[in-house]
Amino acid sequence: xxxRTNTPRCCxxxxxxxxxxxxxxxxxxxxxxxxxxxxxxxxxxxxxPDAYDADTYDADVDADMYATGTTDADIDEDMNYTAxxxxxxxxxxxxxxxxxxxxxxxxxxxxxxxxxxxxxxxRNNSNQAMHDLVVRDTGNxxxxxxxxxxxxxxxxxxxxxxxxxxxxxxxxxVGMLMPGQSRTVTVTGYAPxxxxxxxxxxxxxxxAICQTIEVVEANLSFERxxxxxxxxxxxxxxxxxxxxxxxxxxxxxxxxxxxxPGFLQTEDGQSQIDLTIDSVPxxxxxxxxxRIMPNDAGQWDGTATVTAGDSTARSNPDQVRVLKPELDVTxxxxxxxxxxxxxxxxxxxxxxxDAAAREVALQMPGISDMNxxxxxxRGELQGDSVSIGTIEAGEQRQFQVRMTxxxxxxxxxxxxxxxxxxxxxxxxxxxxxxRGVPALQIFVIDEQDPVTVGGETYYLVRVLNxxxxxIRGLDLTGELPSGMSFVGADGRTQVSRGGQQGQQAGGQNxxxxxxxxxxxxxxxxxxxxxxxxxxxxxxxxxxxxxxxASSDTLRQDVRSEEPTTxxxxxxxxxxxxxxx
Length: 580
Prior knowledge:
Number of domains: 4
Radius of gyration: 71 Å
Structural class: mainly beta
Number of helices: 2
CATH superfamily of the largest domain: Immunoglobulins
Strand content: over 45%
Helix content: under 10%
CATH architecture of the largest domain: Sandwich
Oligomer: single chain
CATH class of the largest domain: Mainly Beta
Shape: rod-shaped
């Protein structure tokens, strides 16, 4: 906006008689805004006007506004003050509270045809800078003014003179005046003839309204940190995202995103990380932690993207290796074995992965209930478990399990491998058929030896299964020697001779013959069966009682004999039937 001071003071004075009017015109204080001001005239016979309104400039002014006093001055409708040639007037003019003021040292009188000089000072009374300030004298039509050098810079006479010539008037370019600043120029004038010089000063300028707007900027730095470089597949990965605002402005709507590989997911099962930070104040750091759960082995070269407005940045990749150990277990041992022998198994546990398997243990259900179990030196049995420890990648461990079973049948051994972060539970099992061996022993003992003819004696028959398998379908038979006859028997089963028992088995003279003990369905290991067989001696000699046993579970028949000496009665000579 271009403001102009429309507060001229146009005075007409005689060139020879009175320069006071010019001083009065130049010494006023004026501004660059159209506002009401008051001019005080302090010359003899001139009274001050009641008021001056810039809007009334170039308009008819009522002569009643001025008191003419004792002077012969009249005021024309352009507010021109005319002083008679015979009169003198000393005048000063001032403008109250105007943005621009002028101070002049112009003389009261000058001579026609001669140059004269005076100082013109322009002051910025406002609190704002004035740009492109130009002072013009629009009143002198027959007087030429030139400017010299200013006392405080930038009013250059030649340039201003050229500007004045272009404008067709006397003008002085002041340039910029800061609040309270003033500029002074030396004005050189020339009046070509006697008469009056009119001087009306007008100031034009561009007002400047300056305000300070602080320019701020958010400056974000982004960090992505993972403390672990290597984790097991059962361990969580904590990813820490830090957004730091080192600028001086708040940053809003900061988004962090990261795509996860197939073997990773968030705690809620997502494959994508999406975080939104509503605000990051200047000078503060916002931290967010996301927990990632692995589900398989792999290598993660992770990088995240942060977006704030139109700006996008990516973090440096962090490499995390996810380990997942895998185990394998095998059992080697006999498919069959006889009771009474130790059964030995070789257990092999292998780490088939590229990660160390920690806290490895082998579970063997029910092994603690077995008798006489021993584990090799590489394992320690605790209950049904054997602790192995750490097995490095590609390594295997072997140890032996030795057991002594006490019963025939099937014996099962199962081994299950466990370890830290081992998802699968590899296992192996083996079944061994345990075979028992029946072992029969027969005892035949005579209660009296020798025995006199006509007398009786007893044979104790006892069978014992001293093996570890039952004897089924056991048949026993006895062979009486000649010279003896069967009297009777008692025991586990009934004993007969020729299908008859006791005295009915042939009478007292029925010597020799076969005795039948019947059949024992099952004789368990360690079990015995006994009989007591009564016989009578019929004739002297050497006699042998024989007992035989047979069974389908025995590889061969078992027999036992007991010799007995038979002697004649006293004083009687009898024939020896023994052939001796």
